[in-house]
Amino acid sequence: MPYNEDRATWFDGQGLWQHVPESDWRDWNWQLKNRITSAAQLEQFMTLTPEEKAGCLFANHKLALAITPYFFNLIDRNDPGCPIRRQVIPRGEEVVMAEEEMLDSLGEDAHSPVPGLVHRYPDRVLFLVTDRCAAYCRYCTRSRLVSNAQDYNFHPEHERALRYIEAHPEVRDVLLSGGDPLLLSDRKLDHLLGRLRAIRHVEFIRIGSRIPVFLPQRITPELCEIFKKHGPVWMSIHVNHPKECTQELKDACERLAYAGVPLGNQSVLLRGVNDEVDVMRALVHRLLRMRVRPYYLYQMDLITGGSHFKVDVRKGIEIIRALRGHTTGYAVPQYVIDAPGGGGKVPINPEYIEKITDDEVVFKNFQGETFRYPLKSTPHRPVEASPAHGVMPAELFP
Ligand SMILES: *Cc1c(COP(=O)(O)O)cnc(C)c1O
């Protein structure tokens, strides 16, 4: 059945937690304290499938189980195939490890000059500032680091990482990630952003966070003031399915946007979640309505126990082909594979070019019609020079 965009409402409300005072519900610390973290808790609310039960038994040895009450409400408890459910409730398949899967599939540890910092691209670093998240995605790329379930002993050392960035003038872009950076306290974030802003060569600061999706209550006016103070701070959120685009998320995005935070979205292409054109189209349209620009669509990394999420790359290409030209250009994310072993993100695109010669390029448009663009120019008559205007050069900012 094709996904019907109208079926997704801007969900707003306390759902199963009607009895809780609204002030608690809106308090992000309450949401964290009341997370669902065990099979027993889940079973108070729903019937788990045998695969899910098996997954829950294993979860705390690999990647913790944790779901905020707010996000749990988005699950359709009567539908074992619910796309929200698949993302956060463990399944037995997580134990199954395929030959090609790796604990550190992106070779991040090998590109880590100091603990908590990945310096893969020449001009930018990934700064893993915490190992905690508000809720845990079952397809997590960094399950080795986060939630501490694997005894990986990941202790982000902010001071060493900051000193590395200070000492490397080629680093013009710092991406705070983790774990989820927005789980740090306001004070800590204020300090970190202040330190980064004080480094002359750091031009671009961004945060990768799923907090707006799992815990929109965290996007408080006080937090937004911190982003304003140290701005521009950019943010990539992580929405995979249109059902996640709730009124609460929309409001949180609005608060961020009003604080001057440009918003992008990173989705992971996941089997049974968003591997259909209709779902992805509904998602990107809802993102634009929330002021969020779809940035990347990721082919899932080769994580251990992730085979049940894997989607054929040809399906990803088909989705992009169905979007490009057929809808707003701003709505189309760049589909990428993060190259296994540490090669960085590589764009994967539908092929539009049929032929390039010295004379012309031949290509197809979004409707499959063929067009030609000549590459050799045939001079006819000189363009008449226009009289010079005394234009003053605009002043550039330093
Ligand atoms: C994704 C990533 C970045 C940022 O890449 P952009 O294409 O600039 O968004 C930086 N460092 C690492 C290690 C990454 O994985």
Q: Can you offer a commentary on this structure?
A:
The structure is a single chain. The protein has about 400 residues and is an alpha/beta fold. It folds into three domains: about 15-95, no CATH class; about 110-345, Aldolase class I (TIM Barrel, Alpha-Beta Barrel); about 350-398, no CATH class. It has 13 helices and twelve strands. Strands 1-2-3-4-5-6-7-8-9 form a nine-stranded mixed beta sheet. Strands 10-11-12 form a three-stranded antiparallel beta sheet, with no helix packed on it. Strand 7 (about 290-300), helix 13 (about 315-325) and strand 8 form a beta-alpha-beta unit. Helix 8 packs parallel to helix 10 (about 220-230). The longest helix has 13 residues, at about 275-290. The mean pLDDT is about 95. The structure holds pyridoxal-5'-phosphate (PLP). Pyridoxal-5'-phosphate binds near residues 120, 121, 124, 175 and 345. Pyridoxal-5'-phosphate binds near residues 118, 120, 121 and 126.
Descriptive key words:
398 residues, alpha/beta, TIM Barrel, 3 domains, nine-stranded mixed beta sheet, three-stranded antiparallel beta sheet, 13 helices, 27% helix, binds pyridoxal-5'-phosphate
Structure, briefly:
The chain has 398 residues and is an alpha/beta fold.
Reported by name, the CATH topology of the largest domain is TIM Barrel
State the major sheet.
9 strands, mixed
Number of domains: 3
What gross morphology would you assign? globular
SSE topology string: HHHHHHEEHEHEHHEHEHEHEEEEE
